[in-house]
Amino acid sequence: MKLYNLYSKTNWVNNILKRLEIQKILPKITKRHGMTLLKWAIIGYLVRVAVMPLFYTGDQMSIAWGSLILMKDHQLVASSDPPTIFYVFSVFYTLVRPILPGNVLDFLVSKPGYTPTWFSGSFYFNMSGVRTFLLVSKIPYLVFDFATAILLLKLIDDDERKALSAFKLWMMNPFAVSICYAIGQFDIIPVFFLILGLYFFKAHKVRWAMLAIGIAGAFKIFSMLFVLPLALIYFKEHRSLAVKAKGITELLGISSLPIILTLSSLILIPTYYESANAANPDLYDFNGFFGRTLYSRGNPTQPLFGGLFLYALDYSVSLKTLPTFWDVIYFFPLIYGLFLLGIIYWRDWSFERVWKVILIFFLAYYSVTLFHIQWFLWAQPLLTLLIVGAPDKFLKLYVISIPLYFIYTSYWNADLVSAMNSIGLPGVQVVNLCRSILSGVCIFTIFLILKRDFVRMSRM
Amino acid sequence: MLDIKLTTLALVLLVVIGSPIVYIILLDVIMPNRELRLCPGWEDNTFETSYQKPAWIDENFTQGWRVIWTGGQRNGSSGFVAEKGIGNLYAAFIGFNPNHERGVSGIIIQKSIGNINVSAYPYLVIRHWENSTDPSLAFSFGVTDSRGIPHCGEWYHACQTWAHLEFDLRKIYNGTIRSIFVSLTNDFNPSYVGGRQHAYIQRIAICKKPPEWILACSKPINASISSKDGVLRVYGSGNVTRNTLVTAQRIFAQSDNGLSINLTKYKYLKVSIRTSSIDVAARVVVWPDESHLYTVLLKTYNDKNWHTEIIDLSYFGITDGHLSIIELGLMQIHGSSNSSSIFYKDLSLNSLEEGG
User: Fold this and answer.
1) CA–CA separation, A182 vs A3, rounded Å?
2) HSE (CB half, 13 Å, CA atoms) of B131?
3) Is B310–A114 a contact, with Cβ atoms under 8 angstroms apart?
4) A29 — contact with chain B (CB < 8 Å)?
5) In this complex, do A123 and B36 lie within 8 Å of one another by their Cβ atoms?
6) Residue-wise pLDDT tens digits, B291-314
7) H or E element: which one contains B13?
């Protein structure tokens, strides 16, 4: 009797969940496959936890340092990373400060100046308590990572088999694990908001979709590339040009709000004076203030804006038409132009076509543009949807891309190249070779998607 | 309806919270972190900028010097004059001098300095440069004892940049001396033909302990260096224009062949810096030898707090086993009519060690 009464009273857990209306947030699949999902969630969690304290990079250290400076001194570090990430982490560090190792905090906020700057990493990674710091620092990524998994479930909620496969695939996604928890980059946050935007778009809540994509853009500007295409698709059925123009303008405005707020904060929050060593022989490492001038990679500029043309044009494959003339064709803008034109001319837009055309754009981007290794995460949720939709077609390509990607990362880690050189292989050329094949895999995937989903369209 | 059992929830929470904690503990036990620290192989935290009780010093050369010997010279081809506080010793070299047993040409000057006990004041310091680096030329010095017997010092090759000569006189005589002599000759090659050559002398002193840090300035402004409580101050005032350099140099004497330190191991230069304004940059320069210099730090700060800098000298290609000069100074970034100061403390060369 007493045990039965105890059980009745401890059903308070379910009562609380009912009051929070958790039912509405969680996908329908959790009703029948809750334990399976929980099992895979735990497996995914353990894989991530295993990686979290073992690795650090200069990027992760910079984000931690900038956030702690904001927390301690209320000043913003001038960085190519958006201030939004520092806001998020400074709030997070404030909340978890009691469990952070004090020696690591002290080192990051008041560390000496090092020349070269990456030399500080040697001290950082060997400090006692750094593993705890690394693990705790990556907890925000866990939240967005698992939230993305739940969004994937909701996006394919009508097919339980596919949803389950997508969840399992995401839990074991090697790119998500390495980018978020080994490299420690924050791309999972804009990825989550982008997928959230697509979720709202599917539910015909286009204003919420634009706001979500705008928030993603406040973390990584790439998301803003999809504002106009989605707005064009949404208003495609309206014949009145005035309605279209007004509607698209409104949506562009909504999506810009987070970025406008972020940029406004730059005026309100003083800039942290990070001294740069003008004697540094490597201009790429010359970042910070010298005198009253701010330098980024050796050039007097605001680093937040300095990268726009670099990433959009300089990183792209380009063709010079006449060697003695300045006519250059950049592939990235060319692809984006084709992307927009395709959206304008195609009429039959299901939600499936929408996310697939976005995925095509990502794959085309990876195939013709130098991309930082964390940017490969942007396409992963959509790739997951693609694979579970037709695993016989796309799973092989996905598996092939895994080693190719990790060899590609050698561009930023010379150890593999050195190892290949030491056994007589031309390391750089091997990496270039794998990168070229990866481009081929991306292009072939695009071809398959187009053939399956776009060739038999009704009319243009 | 969602139905979660309490035991399930408890297990999940145990895994979510407990597994990272256990994992970290295991990692720290199996692979404990060995913290890195810098271990000094050489350090300077006193910054001696003044002569420690000089028994005798000459920085203008206007009185008391006389030529005591010339060899292989014609009328007017050799002599000694003082020009704006610099002693100009000159002689002509036209080949083998048949009137000398070794054929040497040149000039020697001498000055009486009173009776000085070398055991109490052992260090001779001469700051000089020559207008030629011909290996035949020799700059040298010596002292005479109370009986007038000369005791010659070492020969030094001519140098076209300021050379800081520091010599322990006890190596040649340990007693009372009463005069000092300086010479410019072709002792390295008596057949040398080079015409008129000059040696310029800025300072000669005999002291208990010479200053380790000396002032150098790129423009005629009011500049000084001083030290107090282990802090070196580099100061400049009076229309300090852009790019003006004021520097404290620590020269590791020619006679010791520079500071001999294993720079492959002790390659991390560490120093603490404080500046007077954002318009003046801290400047640290390292000379592995007298003809190569590396600026390893040029930084500004927007506050008046102490900032510690750690510099990997190998990053700049400095791997030689010797250091000829270290400079700690300031460079004016924006012209100012106000004074500029930079403070340095705790200078050291370090190795990177594990543990502790």
Assistant:
1) 46
2) 12
3) yes
4) no
5) yes
6) 889 999 999 999 999 999 999 999
7) helix B6-13
